[in-house]
Design goal:
Shape of chain B: globular
Oligomer: heterodimer
Structural class of chain B: alpha+beta
Distance between the termini of chain A: 34 Å
Helix content of chain A: 40-55%
Order of helices and strands of chain B: EEHHEEEHEHHHHHEHEEHEEHHHEEE
Strand order of the largest sheet of chain A: 2-1-3-4-5
Radius of gyration of chain A: 18 Å
Number of strands of chain A: 5
Largest sheet of chain A: 5 strands, parallel
């Protein structure tokens, strides 16, 4: 039995993190050893994008809610034969709320499926500027949607075998945090303190993420 | 010497003379003809699909493909000059155009079969269990075709860069972009077939169906102009967005590309958006080869092509509507096709209005 005020996720549907679609508010990181051909065009359309040839540490993606990741030729420091695919796995392990796009010309290759399935989206190497803009706009809408963000976090919690009751209690804390614009409700949640340190670390990272910054400030 | 399996005579470039068919011999008129005239005639019609009259008044049919045989030295309805052939002593019955076209189709099918192989379409089991090497061949063929177009347009610009005007450059660059986009679509479909599991595992994104059609129209406009077909401005509009996988991009392409591909020259392709409270209906209409009721039943089958479609365009693989239907099912979009059974004969082929209707329910819970 749960003795506390209950909330529904749908109560967040009126909360809009941004009034209009502000492309520049959401930082995007692209990791590709060959760079990104459309970088300049994407930037000209008002997106806040940074392109790196590789990363040495997974913490390099921390400030970016959206990460575009090549599959081959990157991730040398991680010493995995799966290269960029391994980076996708690492991002999802440490930052499940981030939207990860696998940028690849190997969609036909089922050997990479395990990693492809971890990515939220796969964009082939030969998409044009219209497709970049449309896809990035749709992704930004997801990043700034508090319901969408919690659903992603909820999926992660279930995958970590957190009990349904605890996931629900955390959901109530999250909704209350957003509605009352007080991030400490989730950050100091009793349920959170009872979780294992790895999962706790991920939720604390989530509290520091863009969605809280935009809604709460 | 080239072997001719066709019942009708064909032109031999090698010998500068027609080779007899399995049923029809070379008429006496040909032996009186001057080779120079004949060569000129066949060189001229080689790239022009359709029925033609040769300098001696007989009929020829070219598929428009560089490596294909040109049927010739026969009398085909509405494609001969009676004043030139009436003195001939040879057996020259007037053949209907449909007979000639179906004979080409049959001899083409024979080429793809081993001698003991029965003439039978693949069963659905055979299709789904086979490693679809035909799709690989087809995709490679298509990719090479688009790449060839890109090279040609690029070279046309490069070779005339000093004299070419801005408008022509713009048109050619649009053609390059269109060919490249169509190549991407083919590759995406190959990825879909080769690794279907990853398509639905992706995060669906909010997608405007109207915008997808509009993009397909802009890209295919160049292709339509090349084929002398006009895409009319869209009738109606829609702001409906649905949650869709990226593969949905293929759907408007295949519908509109088919409409253009099968239309005779000077015909129009129309797309109508009927948006009401409950659903969005998109109707694409064009003038194409007639499909019988039986053919319409099988039209979403893999590698299935109607008889008329095979005659009009032998470059297709029968994959378009098969993948189109799969994509519709994946997105809960209704798709139906119709071919008006009242038809018009054109170039020996029965044509009628072909319609593809998509229906998207707005309450999609």
């Amino acid at each position: 039995m749960i003795l506390r005020k209950e909330y529904a996720l749908s109560q967040l549907s009126d909360i809009t993190a941004l009034k209009g679609l502000e492309r520049s508010v959401v930082p995007i990181l692209c990791i590709d050893d060959e760079g990104l051909e459309y970088e300049q065009i994407i930037r000209t359309h008002g997106f806040n994008i940074r392109v790196l040839n590789d990363i040495q540490d997974i913490k390099a993606v921390k400030e970016y809610p959206v990460v575009i990741c090549d599959i081959q030729g990157i991730g040398k420091s991680f010493a995995s034969k799966y290269q960029g695919a391994h980076i996708i796995e690492e991002i999802k392990r440490h930052y499940p709320e981030k939207i990860v796009i696998a940028h690849t010309g190997q969609k036909h290759d089922a050997r990479y499926n395990k990693f492809f399935l971890m990515a939220d989206l796969m964009l082939p190497k030969d998409i044009d500027s219209d497709e970049w803009i449309d896809n990035l706009d749709s992704i930004i809408r997801k990043v700034i949607d508090p319901i969408e963000q919690w659903k992603r976090m909820r999926d992660y919690l279930y995958k970590q075998d957190i009990s349904t009751r605890n996931v629900y209690l955390l959901e109530l804390d999250y909704i209350k945090s957003i509605l009352t614009k007080n991030k400490s409700t989730l950050a100091n949640s009793k349920t959170l303190k009872a979780l294992n340190p790895d999962v706790r670390g991920v939720i604390q990272g989530f509290v520091a993420s863009l969605i809280f910054k935009m809604v709460i400030g | 010497m080239i072997k001719n399996n066709n019942p009708l005579p064909v032109w031999s470039k090698e010998n500068s003379f027609p080779i007899e068919g399995t049923l029809f011999e070379i008429p006496d008129i040909c032996s009186k003809a001057k080779n120079k005239w004949c060569r000129k005639h066949y060189d001229r019609i080689e790239a022009h699909r359709g029925f033609h009259i040769c300098p001696m008044g007989l009929s020829s049919y070219s598929t428009g493909e560089p490596s294909a045989n040109i049927i010739t030295a026969v009398r085909i309805a509405d494609a001969y000059d009676n004043s030139k052939i009436k003195a001939s002593c040879s057996f020259l019955p007037t053949l209907p155009k449909t007979l000639v076209l179906s004979s080409i189709k049959k001899s083409r099918n024979q080429k793809h079969q081993t001698p003991n192989e029965p003439t039978r379409p693949a069963t659905p089991q055979q299709i789904t269990t086979s490693n679809d090497s035909e799709l690989i061949d087809f995709s490679l063929h298509e990719v090479r075709k688009f790449n060839r177009q890109i090279k040609r347009y690029s070279e046309e610009i490069l070779h005339h860069i000093e004299s070419i005007d801005k408008k022509t450059i713009e048109a050619k660059v649009k053609s390059i972009f269109a060919s490249s986009s169509m190549m991407s679509i083919r590759l995406n479909i190959y990825d879909f077939e080769a690794n279907p599991d990853i398509v639905t595992a992706q995060m669906p994104l909010s997608t405007s169906i109207y915008k997808k059609f509009d993009k397909a129209r802009r890209i295919l406009d160049v292709y339509a102009k090349d084929r002398g077909v006009k895409i009319l401005p869209f009738d109606g509009n829609s702001y409906l967005e649905i949650s869709a996988y990226q593969i949905l991009d293929f759907l408007p392409f295949v519908i509109m590309e088919n409409a253009i591909k099968y239309s005779p020259r000077d015909q129009e392709v129309s797309v109508k958006f009927e948006d009401d409270k409950e659903s969005l209906t998109i109707i694409t209409s064009s003038f194409g080869p007639l499909n019988t009721k039986e053919e319409l039943r099988d039209i979403f089958g893999k590698r299935f092509r109607g008889e008329g479609a095979q005659i009009v365009d032998n470059g297709g693989g029968g994959y378009g509507l098969y993948f189109g239907k799969l994509i519709c099912d994946m997105h809960d979009i209704g798709i139906t096709v119709d071919s008006d059974q009242s038809y018009t004969n054109f170039n020996g082929i029965k044509y009628s209005t072909f319609t593809v209707t998509l229906n998207i329910k707005k309450n999609r819970n």
